[in-house]
Amino acid sequence: MVAFTLYRWLFRVYPVSYREEFGEEMASVFRDAQSELPPELVAKLSFYGREFSGLLWGALRARVDRLFGPATSYGRRDMCTQPRFRRSTVMLMLVMFAGVVLAMATAISVAGGTLKAVWPSLAAVLVFLLLSICAAVAAVLGILRMLRRSGVHRLEKVRVASKGDGSGGLLL
Fold first, then answer.
1. Closest alpha carbon to 15 in 52, 75, 72, 58
2. Could you say which DSSP state residue 28 is in?
3. How far apart are CA 170 and CA 71, in angstroms?
4. Element at 150 (helix H, strand E)
5. Which segments in the chain show pLDDT lower than 70?
6. What share of the chain is helix, strand, coil (3-state, %, to 5)?
7. What residue spans define the domains of the chain?
């Protein structure tokens, strides 16, 4: 009970709007997780340490997001709903692709075929893949930059007036 009271008290570090939107849900999740704790002291200390540090870290993030916007990156503690890959993943995939092509070339040579046609096509395919990836990244970044500059994100705040409020159903 003391831990739950402390959790609710520490939750006051969050901005008011955040507390109003997520307060009850976070308290409920904490209470549920607390009720499922094993009786060992080490497990309880680990749980409370993780929860209280996460609560304070989240409050800091919420405050910083209000000052600088939500685009601030926080490294490995940054939560993300979609999977993220390291930058080296693309290169690793290209190396693996080259290995597959080389394995196919070896199989062709073992079967009695010629390797002369494989090597030029391997280099061309790798260059094409690299250029395609760079072009796709540049296109996506360009589109995102143009959307940010055009103010499309402001359309989220536009509300449609109803016919009964005297505005004649116009956009406000």
1. 58
2. H
3. 33
4. helix 118-150
5. 1, 69-87, 113-120, 149-172
6. 75, 0, 25
7. 2-77, 88-155
pLDDT tens, 148-164?
A: 766 655 666 666 655 55
* Cα separation, 17 vs 14, whole angstroms: 8
State pLDDT tens for residues 102-114: 888 778 777 776 6
Count CA atoms within 13 Å of residue 25 on its CB side.
5
- How is residue 84 written in tokens? 């993220």
Q: Which amino acid would we find at residue 117?
A: A
Q: What is the pTM of this model?
A: 0.40
CA-to-CA separations, 72 to 62, 65, 156, 158, in angstroms, rounded? 11, 7, 21, 25
